[in-house]
Amino acid sequence: MELVTFLIDFILHVDKHLEVFVRNYGVWVYALLFLIVFVETGVVVMPFLPGDSLLFVVGALSGAGLMSLPVACAVLIAAAILGDQCNYSIGRYFGPKVFQWEDSKFFNRKAFNQAHDFYEKYGGVTIIAARFMPFLRTFAPFVAGVAEMTRVKFTAYNVVGALIWVLGICSAGYFFGSMPWVKANLDKIIWAMILIPGLFVLFGAWKARRRAAAPQI
Length: 217
Known about the structure:
10 helices, mainly alpha
């Protein structure tokens, strides 16, 4: 229970925790950043770790001179790419093993083929867009692996998505994190970065369920 409480507090006050860590442990913060992003993107059961808010805070701390922005971005990009590759490989390995029975309760060939076709056609956009969506950025690469999206195509979009995600949000934190209004409302900004993309995900899932439940004419 104490671990859960700490994780919630860390996610909601990542700016304070990260600043304390930097002041106490210096360059070890880069190892911590790598671990957090790799686990969030690479382990399908850990989607709740901070992502967007962490990157923004890293940019803000770099702007304040507490961290090196180039080093932080390099570490975070590597973690994001390797994490997605790991998650994809897990899905690719376990998918056929779990779904080995044709049309059983565990596997539906038609649904599998539809997922595979979707990821081959739209998977690139999905992988890139999912970077900015909590929970989706953890599950999208796993599903891509299960759906057997071509590894070369997945890797290309994985790299592009990681670059846009890390450089974009870290740069926003670097240039705007020192503004008085941003510093005074950083806790609200962190909440917004968690809740707003999450609401888009829930709305999309709700619309998809409505379409699936609608009678076919």
